[in-house]
Amino acid sequence: MAGRIKAEDVALVKERASIEDVVRQHVTLRNAGPGSLKGLCPFHDEKTPSFTVRPAVGSYHCFGCGEGGDVIDFVRKVDHLDFTEAVERLAVSSGVELHYEEGGGPRQGEAPGRRARLVEAHRAAAEFYGDALITLGEARQGRDFLRGKGFDGAAAKRFGVGYAPVGERT
């Protein structure tokens, strides 16, 4: 079990981690009036943007599905992490050194952020194979097959369909 992160460190992570920068890693954002940005929600399928980010407040909200919160909540939801893992990930990217309540610390027997690193490795692999499906000439047969089944590029991306180049197969 992980030790509890000190409240002042959690507050510092929230202060230093730009919600706009974190959300932009997953969502294309456009201006939506003074102090507000909008884009397509990463948590549900939509065609019209209902997802808003208010950087000055440090929050996000989707008017379509009701998801909302701060930068930690966003990382937890989008990367399927628990609170401690999300804070640890944001601390690393924000340059914040975390301190734990007395007797606590990172998960015993598990390197700090291990799950976060595994999730990131899976995300990078999915991106690699998704890009291979789109860009490699040898993937043409796969693209043709998917098109024949009614899949377009957006559907392939949504369902995580990719192509493993011959040299990458085991």
Automatic annotation (TrEMBL):
The residue range of the signal peptide is none
Q: Which residues form a coiled coil?
A: none
Q: What Pfam families does this protein's entry cite?
A: Zn_ribbon_DnaG (PF01807)
Reply yes or no: does the keyword Metal-binding apply.
yes
Q: Which UniProt keywords apply?
A: Metal-binding, Zinc, Zinc-finger
Record keywords: Cell inner membrane included?
no
Question: Which ranges carry the Zinc finger CHC2-type domain?
Answer: 37-91
**Protein's recorded name:** Zinc finger CHC2-type domain-containing protein
